[in-house]
Amino acid sequence: MQKSVLQDTVFHEREDSIITKGKQKKQLTCDTASVAGCVSQRACVYCGARVVLNPVTDAIHLVHGPIGCASYTWDIRGSLSSGSELYRNSFSTDLKEKDVIFGGEKKLARAIDELVAEYPTKVVFVYATCIVGVIGDDLEAVCKAASAKHQIEVIPVQSSGFAGNKAAGYRAACDALLRLIKPSQKKNKPKASTVNYLGDFNLAGEVWIIKDYLKQIGIELNVAFTGDSHYEALKNATTASLNIIQCAGSMIYLAQRMEELYAIPYMNISFLGLEDTAASLRRIVDSFGDPEMKLCLEELLVRETSKVKPTLDWYRERLQGKKAAIYVGGGFKAISLIKQFREIGIDVVMIGTQTGRQEEYQTINELVDEGTVILDDANPSELEKFMVEKGAHLLVGGVKERPLAYKLGIAFIDHNHDRKHPLSGFVGAVNLAKEVATTLCSPVWQYV
Amino acid sequence: MLNCTPKELKERTGGVINPAKTCQPLGAMYAALGIHGCLPHSHGSQGCCSYHRMHLTRHFREPIMASTSSFTEGASVFGGGANLKTAIKNVFTIYNPEIMAVHTTCLSETIGDDLPTIIRTAEIPEGKVVIHANTPSYQGSHITGFSNMTKGMVNYLAEATTETKKEQVNIIPGFVNPGDMREIKRILKIMGIKTILFPDTSGVVDSPMTGEYAMYPRGGTQLKDLVDTGNSKLTVALGSYASADAANQLERKCQVPAVVLRTPIGVKATDQLLMTLINKFTVDIPVELEEERGQLVDIMTDTHFHFHGKKVAIFGDPDIMLAMTEFVLSLGMKPIHVLTGTPGSGGALGTALGNFEKEIQELLQEAGVPGKVKAGGDLFDLHQWIKNEPVDLLIGNTYGKYIARAEDIPFVRLGFPILDRSVHSYLPVVSYKGAMRLIEMISNALLDRADRDAKDEDFELVM
Ligand code: SF4
Ligand code: SF4
Predict the structure, then answer these.
(1) Domain range A320-417, CATH architecture
(2) H or E segment to which residue A396 belongs
(3) What is the ipTM of this complex?
């Protein structure tokens, strides 16, 4: 069989985006634009914005642009809802040639009118795609007029912009959310012992797990940004006494703004893995300074840990010594995964993210063993090269990486939108171990 | 729970709810994957490319490679020429394909990049090829994109070099699965006719597991064969929307006569393909194919009572809809709702190749079945139709599952994309064999439902 021609080739311009722990002193360059002609795994501003806002369940999510941008984002994430399913439909202005030439504002206005008539709702998000930026539609004006006409909120999401990556889209989404949560009167009355939970999209019902833990220790989850959220709940977001952030990449900006505007303090946490889950819950409880809560929490930790420990030990015995490669979206997830894999005896030999930030890469560098390859915005040939070189048995990635891993005879788990089991909290740790074992221990690899 | 669609019909002009199509570049990317050693290239921002690859990956469950010009803010002001030139250089240095097939996106189209000029003035290594197609998504659909890229292959590569045409046929399969392309090649091989199938994604997006990753798998139409299409005696375009443009272009450019046929689904359309071939080439219908046809007809008679009078709704790509309408009619079913997301007239820009609604209506009228037909429709339309006039079966791509669930109707997955089931891309729906598979799928769906719904006293062993 012919070896891939790519085995030894890495773009020159990309050399600064790859390091091996222990070898170089230099810092990793991240957040640079992808190289022209590269098979980049990166997504766009709109994608980032859509990912963040999509789980608002009772909103009309209207994509202003040609059809594709809407088609590809139709219900592709497993964000679960306990109420409305409206967000799972796909709405597009489906711009045609004449709209591109004469402008799409009129069509957009008609689309909003029609959709609001078909689906009574309180909030419409209108997403700008790249082309809208170029043809110069005034989204702000159309949305304002529609809002006045229908007496509901019609919020433009400025997600046009091809220069940026997903991170710019997160910010556009946060700006839209800030507009939405702005209290109509002065300030909503704050409620004691309530938190907003930022950066969890309720994939496979993950928000519900955390909500339940918090409830058990006497903390009310006010609203999650944005998993299983809806208009009314978001409108009360400013009443929370604390913001906790799971996915900092997408939500740190929102938290900072909410601190400035509404004096709500925030805290980064992670509910991935036993170690991080316990530590995070402790920090949340500490910030409330309530001894009773503390007691409740310690009981919960003992209870939950004893439930999962034997199972995890069983898995660790079987998985000990396996090597994993990780390629995920954000830095926080990568960090948690390293720790989580350690809990089940797996070494991380390669780790990369699409949008990790400088601080996160530093933490990663401190966490991993000597010789681990760290890379930013990897292309498939780099992933292949380092997985093979480092002898990875397992790849953790997203939809585009799955078949690549399989082709190499490497096991795979999805830690992205396509995950089917919740990976948060104590049950999540077990689910992860189970998923890892399911793929690693499958007999199919014998036939490769 | 997912049933948000109201029953009452209203005129809509503000866009699409739940699309039954996607954008041109995806089709162009898929067509380009059907050339051996080709790296598709998306001239636009990285987001589009990422989405197209993701969508194809989900359908085929294979790694889909494509590069992007990675537009930056500057490109929207100064044009993307510099990006494309850098991209061409980088692609050949690093990924080393034989050929690079560039398609545009909405963005580069709106900016107005002049691709032929950019490509002509780019540094292309000796012996390597760059082709292109314009694929603005604000026209047509992924089917238009497929058609445009296939036509691009003819524009750039086909050459008439021989005095007399060779005893070989070009076949353009249309936007179908690699399983279908393999099946078409199998038939032509049995008939003993030398064939150039293009594009040919078999062996590319259904390549076998070897434990090694090959960026350019073994399949795909060879470059030299694409050049040689200009010397063939005949081009058969399967499907007027996805394939006719390229065939007609080949006729204009290299005087290869073009015949446009229906996608060969079912007895009649497959017969037509075979008849066309035996009329043009001195061959007989091989016993093997005669036997397969006989088996199919046998199966149809064995099972016809399951199908007769059953109402069906079908949605998907126009060529497949035309063929499927004819096929389900041949089984005695009533396709009362037929819808495609692709706009009605024309494969490529400006050329009115067909009129979808008229063609389907003719088929329905001939069979005496009144039905609703729409081109450029969406799944909201279809769902409303079904609410107003229920059906016994729904046939379409994965997105149909919402309607099937809401209305509790049996559902057969067919077309692109299928995101929630596997193996579909490996097996054919074309030819006699493919029709057998379709009959199995349809009758299983209907009979599984009958079993599920039967009261104990009506539950039967033999059906
Ligand atoms: S911008 Fe155009 S090419 Fe890109 S995904 Fe949207 S519709 Fe498709
Ligand atoms: S046009 Fe822009 S917004 Fe749409 S998919 Fe492409 S990069 Fe994303």
Answers:
(1) 3-Layer(aba) Sandwich (3.40)
(2) strand A394-397
(3) 0.93
